[in-house]
Amino acid sequence: MEHGIAGVFHYDGSNIKQIKETDGVSSNLIYVLYADSDYLWIGTNLGLDRLSLAEYSKGKIDLRHYGSSEGLPDLEINLNGVLADGYDGFWIATNGGLAHYQKSLDKINNIPPKVSITNLLLRSQPTPWADYASDIDELTGLPSQLKLSYWQNHLTFEFAGVSFKNPQGVKYAWFLEGLDNSWVESKNRQAVYSNLQPGKTYRLHLKAANSDGIWSGEVISMPIYIAPPFWATWWFRLLSIIAIGLLIYWYVNRRIQYLKERQEELEAMVEQRTVELREQLDIVDDKNRQIMDSIMYAKFLQTSMLPSVDDFKKYFNDAFIFYRPKDFVSGDFYWFCHHKNVSVFAVADCTGHGVPGAIVSVICENALRNAVKECDYQNPAQILTITNAHVVEFFTQSQKSIHDGMEIALAIFNHHTLELDFSGAKLPLYYISGGEVVKLKPDIYRIGWDKEKVLYNNQRVKLSKNDLIFAFTDGFCDQFGAETGQKFSSARLKSLLVDNNQQPHTYIEQLLSITFDQWRGFTEQTDDVLVMGIKV
């Protein structure tokens, strides 16, 4: 079995079936299994789940979750902490105390929530809709129908569902007629739609379900028509065509006599210029092709230099790499090798980006590889000292003063002792252990900047299984947001990683990509981006 795989396993005499988080179980960490005549009760560190045995026998997985809202004193169930009471229930032990379950009192709530649309925001701001329409609902303040300009196409629908039993368990489903093709389900009480296409009418269809999955009827919003800009209307296009046609007709009639007189001369001139332009275009196309071929081959070389995420997963529980160069090639790179019982890995940010940054990264990566071998895959501080000497020696061969180099976080992990040795040049390393994030601070000296001999320091920490190690360059943090104009910041990035450190790393990588694209919007990417995470 691979590390990190858990859940509930069922053996039917010939096959073993697994029920895990992706099937609806609250957590793969199982503390209690208890079966009565109808259900299998699964106690986890995130609450209690009930599996219908009748549905499971039909090949279906029907799970119901019990948490704080259903009366559990604490979400974490104690190991083997269950006791049947001999009647129609059982006792369950949690970190917050004992809880008693009675089947006769656990009844399905068949009353669906009362759901309604409470507000409509324009560009995320409260809006006096009386300025836009005359027919306004006195209770909600919303118009019965609405017409907006083409640039007023960022709408936020706010709604609420009332259920007296477990109101926190109410979930919503909606789709926007005119845009969505399917229902969107969420516990969020807002539906945000931006960049709606002008020239269409939209209606929001909304419904809600209580914690037992009983859905209400649909609520439909007022029709919202977003008018197209005047230049996209049929009458403007028609007038433009007529005006252009009249202009062409007048111009042709005025110039036709003159063109006849100079026709032969112009034809000769056009032919001569065509030949010259074709030759020049061929030269430009050939140069562009050579440049692009060189850049693409440089990208291929740099990509082949980088390890794959599968290389990490051979020796670690899980790993992710979010890598997005600003241009075709990048000044950022990540590095990995395994020797005997240790893994050496690094995240580096070289001077510049694009082709110049890629050239510097190749020089620094080669120096790092040689230094690791010279130090026999030990002592990261000594590796950085030797790397710095190699890079300085390379750049001082020229008579010009060159201040290029890199910032780097370098670590060596011992798989037998679970000890991590770290040394950094301006780039820190982080790890999450027991829900706490710890920062390993780097030295202040960059690689390749100081001609004098620079000494770096080692730091050693003891890690545990499933601890998350991560490091990143400044590209993600320094990206300006399209809406705020502010940088994303390292605090936001660390918070994002800490909040999702228990998620699968493929999910974290996708989340980083989505978050970065949403934050950047249509603004230019500021720098090369690299975020690397490894689960012990």
What labels would you give this structure?
single chain, 536 residues, alpha+beta, Immunoglobulin-like, 4 domains, five-stranded antiparallel beta sheet, 9 helices, 31% strand, flat
Account of the protein in words:
By secondary structure, this protein is an alpha+beta fold. The chain has four domains: 8-105; 114-228, Immunoglobulin-like (Sandwich); 235-290, no CATH class; 306-535, Phosphatase 2c, domain 1 (4-Layer Sandwich), CATH 3.60.40.10. Helices cover 28% and strands 31% of the residues. The protein contains nine helices and 28 strands. The protein has helices spanning 53-57, 234-261, 263-305, 309-313, 354-374, 380-395, 474-477, 490-499, 505-520, and strands at 8-11, 16-19, 30-35, 39-44, 47-52, 63-66, 77-84, 89-94, 97-102, 114-122, 146-148, 155-162, 171-177, 184-186, 190-193, 200-209, 219-220, 224-226, 318-324, 332-339, 342-350, 406-414, 419-425, 429-433, 436-440, 459-462, 468-472, 529-535. The strands form seven sheets. Strands 11, 13, 14, 16, 17 and 18 form a six-stranded mixed β-sheet that branches. The chain is flat, with a radius of gyration of 32 Å. The model has no long low-confidence stretch (mean pLDDT 87).
How are the secondary structure elements laid out?
Blueprint (H helix, E strand, L loop, with lengths): L7 E4 L4 E4 L10 E6 L3 E6 L2 E6 H5 L5 E4 L10 E8 L4 E6 L2 E6 L11 E9 L23 E3 L6 E8 L8 E7 L6 E3 L3 E4 L6 E10 L9 E2 L3 E3 L7 H28 L1 H43 L3 H5 L4 E7 L7 E8 L2 E9 L3 H21 L5 H16 L10 E9 L4 E7 L3 E5 L2 E5 L18 E4 L5 E5 L1 H4 L12 H10 L5 H16 L8 E7 L1
Parallel strand pairs: 11-18
Antiparallel strand pairs: 1-2, 3-4, 4-5, 5-6, 7-8, 8-9, 10-12, 12-15, 13-14, 13-16, 16-17, 16-18, 19-28, 20-21, 21-22, 22-23, 23-26, 24-25, 24-27, 27-28
